[in-house]
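Title: Comparing notes on inverse folding

I've been comparing how different people in this forum approach sequence design from structure. To keep things fair, I'm posting one structure and asking everyone to reply with a full sequence. Here's the target:
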């Protein structure tokens, strides 16, 4: 059966230059290793995603597709989680430059 959860994420953006939202309300539905949800993203937009959560020896890896960002309508998503901690790669175009960085944070709730 499917499970629904509500979370709050607190994040920090490393290696990026723009100012980003760092609080992300998040609702998720999980069935088996399939995940789908909606959250308020770093760019102050709502994002919807679908994907898979792969269990690892320590933590899990989420891979999928997400909407709600200015670079493209739909982009790939990857996020490593261990307990409440998460980290994911990030990309931005800001002031004519392209920057790579990452987002780290904590996720609370259930």
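Reply #1:
Here's my take.
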């Amino acid at each position: 059966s499917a499970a629904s959860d509500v979370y709050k994420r607190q994040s920090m953006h490393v290696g990026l230059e723009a100012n980003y939202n760092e609080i992300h309300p998040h609702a998720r539905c999980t069935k088996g290793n399939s995940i789908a949800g909606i959250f308020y993203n770093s760019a102050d937009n709502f994002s919807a995603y679908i994907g898979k959560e792969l269990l690892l020896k320590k933590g899990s890896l989420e891979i999928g597709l997400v909407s709600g960002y200015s670079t493209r309508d739909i982009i790939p998503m990857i996020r490593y989680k261990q307990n409440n901690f998460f980290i994911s790669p990030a990309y931005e175009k800001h002031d004519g430059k392209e920057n790579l960085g990452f987002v780290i944070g904590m996720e609370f709730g259930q």
